[in-house]
Amino acid sequence: RRTRRRAMAPARRRPAVRAPSKRASSASRAGARDASRASPSPSTTAWTVLSRLFASTFSRRAARREDVERRRTRARALAVACVACAATYLREVYVPAAVRDTFVDSLPDWVNDTVLARLPALELQPETRSRERGPGVELRERGLTPKHPVVIVPGFVSTGLELWRGKACGAHFFRRRMWGTPAMARAFFSNQKCWMEHMRLDGRTGSDPESVRLRAVRGLEGVDWFLPGYFVWGKVIEELSELGYDSNTLHSAAYDWRLSPTMLERRDGYFTRLKSVIETLYSVHGERVALLAHSYGDTISRYFFEWVETPVAKGGGGGGKRWVDKHVHAYVDIAGPMLGIPKTIPSLLSGEMRDTAILGELEGMLGGLLETAVGRLIGTQIKEVRDTFRTWGALWAMLPRGGAAVWGDDDAGAPESGALNFFLQMRAAGTSRETSFNHTVDSALGFLFEQLADSVPHNVAEFSSTIDRASRERLKTRVPDLEAKTAPNFGDPLRSALPRAPNMKIFCLYGAGKPTERAYVYERFDADALRPYQLDVQSRDAALTHGVWQVDGDGSIPLASLGYVCREWRVNRALNPANVSVVTREYAHRPLPLSVGGFQGKSEGDHVNIMGNEDMIRDLLTIVAGRAHAVPPRVVSDVDALAATIRARLAAAPLPSPQSF
User: Fold this and answer.
1) Which of 256, 554, 615, 619 is catalytic?
2) Of 351, 455, 442, 443, whose CA–CA distance to 395 is shortest?
3) DSSP state letter for 409
4) Alpha-carbon torsion angle 276, 279, 283, 288, nearest 10
């Protein structure tokens, strides 16, 4: 092309030059002859130029193809990362229903049941979404205004934890979050072993390990969003703000959720500070407070109610018998585990639960040459998680309570189903289920405590009141100070009466209609020092999936633990001597299409996602606005039949009093 342009271009006038001298002319002619001898012919030159041109063209094309391939590889990696981030963080993804259903149906069941069912949400919404009218705006336009100051008691794993003192591997994370926000991900992926060491507690003291100090993030920012977009209290706080609340009338009683209630007061003075906060809000605003608790926050709140009215000489707060009636207008329990959570036992025994059972199935599916390596990797990860779980007193505080009357036995079966005649079924690996030993909840607890007496003696001693007398006597020889370390039984809903607070109102708000862990099938591997006890993920039948038996609940807590106590308080004067008003309000689990409700939804009864349930938030705002009478009871499950069965069983076989231990 360049040659053609030069040929077609008009000749340019050359400037006149002087004729060379004869001497110069002869020299130039000689040089031309030499150059003609050394230079190739015009045809050779053209061929060389064309060869070089073609070679350059082909090399550029090859380089371009390689560059394109590299770009495609990077684009594919970026696309995978974007999809993962979108699935993890985006709340509002507008996908046509037909496309979404086709995609979901094409995936294996285990992906839908484990991965997609647990995707968190990112509250990055289109502008049109941010202008929608929420419950706060609706109630404000109907004339409701803030009346009672609000104190939030968050639940398990829902408060941010920041590092105040760390080991050498984590010292650079000072005042950064080791739990919650993207800072947690940076700390975890930079050094997983170091992160795990900072998250553990000392198994012999139940408190901080040497050279490590994690503390709860104070304020509302510590409990609103677990990660950007994955709300815990964030939606509730936003709607309270729309109603008219602000930082003067809304307080977050954040705490280190790893600790047991006893250690919260001993290490952090948590209940003393909570008592002071409530008294201050009452004094400043002249109104009793509304105490809102979610999940483990219910265990903390019930402990506080008994602690605050117990004399100081007996280990309490010394507030007097009328303190709660004077200072608390309403106690709102959201998805509280009043009778404990079954999956705390497998979490402490093997580090497993239904959500992790898929790892065992994956290990079996890979098989062959990878089986040993993958099994070792999975086993190591689960062991690390298990050892960390065992140090957290909070998990021990949520162990199942009530014995066989609540959780069933081999004779009568479970209250939910007579076909369920075990809590934990154990057999040797490779044998049939007919050879299994069926543990009741009492024998499973005794077995668990004896297994862990040497590794976490503090927690074993502190919660030894949850096991039977025979197991407790056996433990005394291995934990000499067991009696001295046993925690007071504050807040036990089956033994401790409600405060004498006739002016207080109690609301039990929880979801129902979602399959929830209830019992477990285990295999024992005597030769496996890493994981001697493992969920039998291959066990399946009508009610058994991946070795886990499921019943009705909110996805984390069975219905018996969510609802029985609240139904019992309505009729049992021994547990409710002041006849405190108790309202049970259930929310049927109704997941909306992804394009409408997002990943966390706005009408779900899931244990965590209920915090974004607009119906529940509307009821909560009505209560704190002083219109508690406008929130009537509502039951959508079989909780009343379940409560009647448990009540009859407890009447036939009363629980032993704590003093009998």
Assistant:
1) 554
2) 351
3) B
4) 150
Contact between 479 and 457 (Cβ < 8 Å)? yes
Cα angle 640, 342, 361; round to 5: 125
For the segment 391-406, what is each residue's pLDDT rounded down to a tens digit? Answer: 999 999 999 999 999 9
Contacts 24+ apart (CB under 8 A), 653-660: 653/403, 653/404, 653/405, 655/402, 655/403, 655/405, 655/494, 655/495, 656/469, 657/495, 658/465, 658/489, 658/492, 658/495, 660/469
What are 161's strand-pairing partners? 179, 216
Task: Give bridge partners of residue 558 from the DSSP assignment.
Answer: 553
List pLDDT tens digits, range 74-113: 665 555 555 444 444 433 343 444 554 455 455 555 444 4
Is 256 a residue of the active site?
Answer: no
Within a 13 Å sphere around the CA of 384, how many CA atoms are in the beta-carbon half? Answer: 13
Q: How many CA atoms lie within 13 A of 264 on its CB side?
A: 26
- Cα separation, 135 vs 456, in Å, equals 46
HEC sequence for 82-110: HHHHHHHHCCCCCCCHHHHHHHHHHCCHH
Distances (CA, A) of 169 to 165, 214, 385: 11, 15, 19
Catalytic residue among 198, 251, 294, 607: 607
What are the angstrom distances between the C-alpha of 7 and each of 2, 12, 47? 9, 12, 18
Cα–Cα distance measured from residue 214 to residue 17, given in angstroms and rounded to the nearest whole number: 90
Residue 554 appears among annotated catalytic residues: yes
Say what the pLDDT of residue 113 is.
Answer: 44
From 158, 207, 252, 295, the catalytic residue? 295
* Of the candidates 154, 228, 231, the residue with the CA atom closest to the CA atom of residue 185: 228
